[in-house]
Design goal:
Helix content is 29%, strand content 16%. It is an alpha/beta fold. It folds into two domains: 2-127 and 319-371, Rossmann fold (3-Layer(aba) Sandwich); 134-315, Rossmann fold, CATH 3.40.50.720. The strands form four sheets. Strands 3-2-1-4-5-6-18-19 form an eight-stranded mixed beta sheet. It has a seven-stranded mixed beta sheet with strand order 11-10-9-12-13-15-14, sandwiched between helices. It has a two-stranded antiparallel sheet with strand order 7-8. The longest helix has 20 residues, at 128-147. The chain is globular, with a radius of gyration of 23 Å. The protein starts with a strand and ends in a 39-residue tail after the last helix. It binds nicotinamide-adenine-dinucleotide (NAD). The site of nicotinamide-adenine-dinucleotide has 31 residues, from α5 and α6.
Length: 410
């Protein structure tokens, strides 16, 4: 059985789906591993490192592969070269990739989307959304510290005392908590806000002050946040304004599954910030938490420099690749039986993450978008097995609805 590692084709992508130190985890299970030349070069892994780890390095890595792994989905032209029955495993944002999903279906390729791995305890080691959010959160805090023209920590010297910087973090999920912890370690005074009730305790547990607003909390299904009403959004902005005006650095990481990132901070709020202040918007690519933020750019609003995140995990490609590769290896291991890549489609992690298989789209929300509503069953017809499997445990990805967490009763 052969696993191929793709060289990423997305503009600006620096990560790689498998790092040399994990090649042995796959060869030990009986796989041969073939890597496209220079696949890891932007993450500081040379072809020689893969060769020494026991992989083959060849432009024709996909030929005869049973599974192709990548960070971003393959391009359609690559999918069309795959033999029917080949599997692919990568991030696959289904809503933004409808043509590609149709191509995967038509090519008879079995595709697994890392965003769709159910966020249950058993799948934590395969949760690439979390591993990449952790990298992003860290990077956001470092960017803020680097852009701010003052110390993060308190400094007491013979020449006098320099007070610490004040950092406000909005959104305290995986990325936000990591941003808080990193800013704290650098010595800043950190305050943070999140709409979920559970977040206040999590914020305090990483050493920050939880900003508590006189507003209802917004718990959605599966441990995620719900969307705000317009009225609540306006009220939240009013109540957060003084905290933002007092901050030296503002970091925003808020997201709501299936929606554009919520707008939390208007340009008028940023204009109230002090000269030299810094705003880091991790959500800039998905709509932006901060009005005026632009992905991949630094713009000036009032006195503040506003940094918009664009493919942020790729900015720390070595740790991001290492963590992602570990997620991939763990998922491949789950799908390996008797030394062969043989996913058990009765397993909720396998079926939950599968988008296409055997010429059909198994991810029901995507199938319905591409193919339309399933035909009404003919009441007179004999019951027959449906080619489309509806996943009972998880119905969508972050861009397509809710993902269930263990313990979610809905
Ligand atoms: N296996 C598991 O059980 C598992 C895995 C990963 C994450 N989680 C938990 O799920 C939760 C969310 O995870 P995520 O980081 O992927 O979420 P996410 O990326 O969807 O959202 C980031 C954060 O933004 C917050 N947010 C949304 N709207 C907001 C608003 N208007 N104002 C302020 N904040 C707002 C959300 O509450 C969330 O904490 C966290 O509690 C996390 O610990 C559980």
């Amino acid at each position: 059985m052969k696993i191929a590692v793709a060289r990423e084709t997305r503009q600006g992508e620096s990560r790689v789906a498998l790092v040399p130190e994990l090649v042995g985890k796959l060869t030990a299970q009986g796989y041969t591993v073939a890597v496209q030349p220079e696949a890891g070069v932007n993450a500081q892994y040379a072809d020689q490192d893969y060769l020494e780890a026991g992989a083959e390095v060849t432009e024709d890595a996909f030929d005869g592969a049973d599974l192709v792994v990548s960070v971003n989905p393959l391009d359609s032209y690559q999918v069309r070269t795959l033999a029917p029955g080949t599997s692919v495993m990568s991030f696959l944002p289904t809503r933004q990739s409808l043509d590609l999903v149709a191509d995967l279906r038509d090519a008879g390729v079995t595709s697994f989307a890392m965003e769709l791995v159910p966020r249950i305890s058993r799948a934590q080691s395969m949760d690439a959304l979390s591993s990449q959010a952790l990298v992003s959160g860290y990077r956001c805090a470092i960017v803020a510290a680097g852009m701010l023209r003052r110390f993060f920590p308190l400094n007491m010297t013979a020449a006098g005392t320099v007070p610490p910087a004040e950092v406000v973090v909005l959104g305290a999920g995986v990325a936000g908590l990591q941003a808080i912890a990193t800013a704290k370690r650098l010595g800043a005074v950190v305050k943070a806000y999140d709409v979920r009730a559970a977040a206040a305790e999590e914020i305090r547990s990483v050493g920050a002050q939880a900003i508590e607003l006189e507003l209802e909390t917004l718990e959605g299904s599966g441990g995620y946040a719900r969307e705000m009403t317009e009225d609540r959004a306006r009220r939240q902005m009013e109540l957060l304004t003084p905290y933002i005006a007092a901050a030296d650095a503002l970091i925003t990481t808020a997201a709501v599954p299936g929606r554009q990132a919520p707008l939390l901070v208007t340009a008028a709020m940023v204009e109230q910030m002090k000269p030299g202040s810094v705003v880091v918007d991790l959500a800039a690519e998905s709509g932006g938490n901060v009005e005026g933020a632009s992905p991949g750019e630094v713009v000036r609003i009032g006195h503040a420099q506003v940094w918009g995140g664009a493919n942020v995990p790729s900015q720390l490609p070595q740790p991001a690749s290492k963590l992602y590769a570990q997620n991939i290896v763990n998922l491949v291991t789950l799908m390996t039986r008797d030394g062969a890549f043989d996913p058990d489609f009765e397993d909720e992690i396998v079926i939950g993450s599968c988008v296409t298989r055997g010429g059909a789209i198994l991810h029901e929300p995507t199938r319905e978008t591409i193919e339309g509503p399933a035909p009404e069953p003919d009441p007179l017809a004999e019951p027959a097995a449906s080619p489309v499997v509806e996943d009972p445990t998880q119905t969508s990805d972050r861009t397509g609805g809710s993902t269930r967490f263990e313990g979610d009763s809905q």
